[in-house]
Amino acid sequence: MSKNIVSLENIAVSFDGEKVLNNISLDIKDKEFVTLLGPSGCGKTTTLRTIGGFITPDSGSVKFDGKDITSLPPYKRNVNTVFQRYALFPHLNVFENIAFGLKVKKFSDKEIQRRVGEMLELVNLKGFEKRSTDRLSGGQQQRVAIARALVNEPKVLLLDEPLGALDLKLRKEMQIELKRMQQRLEITFVYVTHDQEEALTMSDTVVVMKDGDILQVGSPVDIYNEPKNAFVADFIGESNILSGLMVKDLLVEISGKRFECVDTGFGENVGVDVVIRPEDIKLTDEKDAELSGVVQSVTFKGVHYEMVIETYDHNWLVHSTKAAEPGSTVGITFDPYDIHIMNKMK
Amino acid sequence: MKKLISTPYLLWMAVFIIVPLIMVAYFAVTTADGAFTFDNLAAVSQYANIFVRSIYLAAIATVICLVIAYPLVMILARIDVSFQSTVLMIVMLPMWMNFLLRTYAWMTLLGNNGLINMLFGLFGLGPFRMLNTQGAVVLGMVYNYLPFMILPLYNVIVKIDKSVIDAAHDLGCNNAGTFVKVILPLSVPGVMSGITMVFVPAISTFIISRMLGGGSNLLIGDLIEMQFLGNSYNPNLGAAISLVLMVIILLIMTLLNQFDDDEDRVLM
Questions:
Q1: Which of A149, A192, A277, B90 has a CA-to-CA distance to A269 between 20 and 30 Å?
Q2: pLDDT recorded at residue B196
Q3: pLDDT at residue B260, rounded to an integer
Q4: Sheet architecture: strand order including A18-29
């Protein structure tokens, strides 16, 4: 088990009296790719800026490598940031931008040449040294921003929605590239995004946030398969979220029908949220199923069809490689382990 | 189509800018009878001391304006936006008052029996000679032209991306380092236009020196005015002086712009 490189303890932040972070605590392990995921306004960027030192929390402490750095200004912290809109220095060219941090730290010209050269190679920008930053494409500016941060060899790299401004194809390429960089350099990445797919693709650990709280911390697989509540389930991929009643251990009532499930410990006759992923639902003949409904729409999505099946109290989202006939009545079935039960959200 | 739209402007420029320039040049190289001569231009050299004084005083006023305006704008750029516009309006407010009136007010303040000396008198000090000094001329220039330094500086500095400043901190710069390495180089265009907008009117002013400088602190502006309206009526010499002044301003501005282009490299 590797050690914690960054620890947030009971961090509270408010702007103009409005609470942005509610006493959150989070441990980030060394050499890990951690993603802070949540809708806009959930406090993910504030959390990142607190680690970077741009925000001093109202209470709580930030520890770096075991040492308290809560009151340390950004320029004394061994972390570097890739900013949302890159924030390249417009008066400097590519080389000077990347060399900025090294010049501040008074490295020798030879050392600066060597390290900037290495970085340019890492981000595939060899030959761009003299280029002015406003003559770079979005993707190239992004690479300069990453190189400018990484050249300082920080222990932790903070990335604030770095791929947000790029088009889909470039974003996918950069996701893979960033992950590769992180593994090669063996440093910790803390990555902020609102894109759940991005989070699942790149992360070792995903931290789901909402309204200044951390809802769940876990591996992408855990977060997807065992979401803690309906919000997480809904945010991480598409889901059918239903109100249910936990009759007793291993038995849940949905839409007036009882189903076997694999969850225990919720108590008896307790209201719960039930999440069933659209890809876990199988359509059958209506005779063979407890639930049945009318096919409302069928949309071709490439790999699968997306269908909406209307039962008497819910519209079910179903993903299947086989299309049903619109307007026909079909049965809905799912296996016990595909029923995810979670406490009702307050 | 594009040509058609630009025609009135080109016409305007030809009639009111190019033609007068040619006329000034023509007057400068002719005698009162219209004969070609270099005598006027040669005669300008005898006023070298006035040229030097004008450049010197205008340069001092420009530097003082910059020294006052820069910190003010830095503070201004950090405060609340609604408050910013209030402060800017206060900066602009004196400009709504007539230029003569503003300068005349300083005469009554600085005079030997003026308000300031009266206050000193209460403590048994003075009276100090403040009016009719070079200091008074510089004060008049600074007072009148300060807004022309503040506004262009403000426009440039307020637009500097805050995240760029964050980035400098992130890369190890403390506040002083961030100022020298990022804010200062990025504000150079504002500094340059501020210098131009203060220096050019300051070097050619004549009312300020007339009212606050007395007879002994003649500037180029006064000299030119005397050739056209004064008792030493000689428009040909006046035109020659104007032409030389124009060339000097052009040279100084070219020199400054050179500095502008190299700025980022000089400071890095």
A1: A277
A2: 92
A3: 66
A4: A18-29, A4-15, A59-64, A67-68
Domain A4-230 shares a fold with domain A238-343: no
Q: Residues with Cβ < 8 Å from A195, sequence gap 6 or more?
A: none
Residue corresponding to tokens 């309206």: B229
- Peptide bond connecting B127 to the previous residue in cis, omega within 30 degrees of 0: yes
Q: Which chain A residues are within 8 Å of B163, Cβ to Cβ? A: 83-85, 87
pLDDT for res A43:
93
Band (B268; pLDDT cuts 50, 70, 90): very low
What is the chain A residue with the closest CA to B263?
A: A91
Q: Which two tokens stand for residue A183?
A: 């593994």
Mean pLDDT along residues A311-332: 91
Task: Name the region of A84 (left: φ>0; alpha: ψ -120 to 50; beta: rest).
Answer: alpha
Fold that domain A238-343 belongs to in CATH: OB fold (Dihydrolipoamide Acetyltransferase, E2P) (2.40.50)
Q: Is the model's pLDDT at B261 over the cut of 80? A: no
* Tokens matching residue A195: 């894109």
Partner-chain residue, chosen from B161, B164, B171, that has the shortest CB–CB distance to A80: B171
In CATH, the number for domain A4-230 is: 3.40.50.300
Contact B172 A105 (CB under 8 A): yes
pLDDT confidence band for B82 (50 / 70 / 90): confident
- CATH number, domain of B211, equals 1.10.3720.10
Chain A residues within 8 A of B167 when measuring between CB atoms:
81, 83, 87-89, 148
B169 touches chain A (CB under 8 A): yes
Q: Which two tokens stand for residue B268?
A: 């890095």
Residue numbers of A between 51 and 90 with CB closer than 8 Å to B: 52-54, 73-75, 80-81, 83-85, 87-90
Q: What is the mean pLDDT of residues B15-21?
A: 93
Task: Determine whether the interchain pair A87/B172 forms a contact, defined as Cβ–Cβ distance below 8 Å.
Answer: no
Residue of A251, A241, A272 lying closest to A343 (CA atoms): A272
